[in-house]
Amino acid sequence: MFRWSEKEQYFDESVPIQGVIEGRDAINEILATGVHKGGVLLIGINEFTRFNNLYSYQTGDLILNAITRQLLEGCPKDVTVYRMGGAKFLYVCSSYNEADIIELYHNVKKSIMRVQLAEISVRVKISGGALIFDYPYGHSDTVYRNLEYALRQSKEDGRGILKFFSRAEWEGYVYNLRLREELLRCVENDCEGFEMYFQPIMSGDGKKLYSCEALMRWKSEKFPNVYPDTFIPILEESDLIIHVGGHMGNEAMDYLKEWRKYKPDLKLNINLSYMQIKSKTLFENLTDAITKRGLPLNSVNIEITESCKLEDIDYVAWFVEKLRSKGVEISLDDFGTGYSSVRILQQLTADWIKLDHKFVSKINENPTDKIIVKNLINMCHELGYKICVEGVENENCYNLLFDSNVEALQGYYYSKPIPADEFFEKYIKE
Fold it and tell me: What is the per-residue pLDDT for 9?
């Protein structure tokens, strides 16, 4: 057990301090009974290193010791607490249910909210992960791994809310880790499994192919049916999107070069994320890729996604203006869905507005949506923008939008995104 010396203000090192080994042994004892009653609580002190940085490592140790003393003094008799190394503490609660552990966590939170040490008074914030022995775990290492995962979730939440381990969430976490590894392998292997799909963008009357939007798809034997809204954010969290985006963008422009032999006025829409835009070489790489294929710069339309609008708007605005000065067209994608959509018009200058499909999806059913769409179109036209409406799903929707005099239409009414060879046969080949 811990022994505290008031005079010297440190732990008596002659007494073994319960630590990682002892804590896991206690869990193993519970598991060995085969009863699996009760639960465990892992508490972490948030941003403890700030105490070391503000004061000193020696003072940080004294603060941690004071925290430990307050935890021990307030610990219920039927609970055993262990110091698990660093600024983490393990509570073994042999007969506790979920409600009991929640109450214990809140009591712990209150007991160490403020720690007084000589002339120093510090505010302490904690996070917590817990689990109930409601099914066999097998080994203490598994328990502790799951606790660490729950604690990490609590810390990432940032509000000091206790998180109970969820097997479903853990399995999702492991799935995403494996998915990341497979994506990395494919990227390193010359973008294996990545393929460009294309969706037609029709003229405002719906009769002529105006442009084609390039959309990335990924196929893997290990991970079948992984949709873009799953794998693209993973790519965007790292610099992988820069490599993959460049590779696939070049492939899309190769298709455009070939298809313009049949349709000389055809344009290409390409999506860029903020991670790609902030790459220092993107502007040169993009414009060079267009010109070396003999394509006019205005044959490519760059769609600025929502992530771009939410990041460094000044840099994005500079980048956009630089592209437009060379003749590359710019579209503001998913317009109308976010709080800042109208305000973004004051910060970014573009050529096109792509009205989000959510406005259009129920335009036949909801009179309010019809009014909103009509007024958004009128406003954008008055500001000098061309309009592409996404989400045209049926003939009724088309008929309503046709009366709005928009410049372009896009949606499943014409086609879902399809592979390049299919797109060629359906829309390019005469």
Answer: 38
Give the separation between CA 261 and CA 358, rounded to whole angstroms: 35
Q: Which residue has the tokens 């995104």?
A: 417
pLDDT single digits (tens) 338-395: 545 677 787 888 999 998 887 777 777 777 877 888 888 888 899 999 999 998 888 8
Contact 317, 349 (CB under 8 A): yes
- In 3-state terms, what secondary structure has residue 106? helix
Q: Using CB atoms within 10 Å of the CB of residue 27, give its burial: 0 to 12 exposed, 13 to 18 middle, 19+ buried.
A: buried
- Note the helical H segments in 260-394: 274-277, 282-291, 306-310, 313-326, 341-344, 357-360, 367-382
Number of alpha carbons in the 13 Å side-chain half-sphere of residue 79: 27
Q: E strands, 84-193, where?
A: 88-93, 114-117, 120-123, 126-132, 163-164
Strand partners, 89: 43, 83
The pairing of strands 329-335 and 352-355 is parallel
pLDDT digit string (tens) for 121-150?
888 888 999 988 765 556 677 788 888 899
* Residue (of 109, 136, 114, 163) closest to 32 by Cα position: 136
| Residue 173 Cα to chain centre, angstroms | 13
Q: How far apart are CA 261 and CA 383, in angstroms?
A: 35
Q: Could you tell me if 163 and 219 are in contact, meaning their C-beta atoms sit under 8 angstroms apart?
A: no
Residue 324 neighbours by CB under 8 Å, 6+ apart: 330, 349, 350, 351
- What is the separation of C-alpha 21 from the centre of its chain, rounded to a whole number of angstroms? 36
Tokens 């390193």 found at: 188
All domains of the chain in start order, with CATH: 4-165 (3.30.70.270), 178-428 (3.20.20.450)
371 contacts 362 by C-beta, under 8 angstroms:
no
140-183: pLDDT as tens digits: 777 888 888 999 999 988 888 999 988 888 888 888 889 999 99
pLDDT digits (tens, 9 = 90+) for 12-48: 333 334 444 566 676 776 666 655 567 889 999 888 8
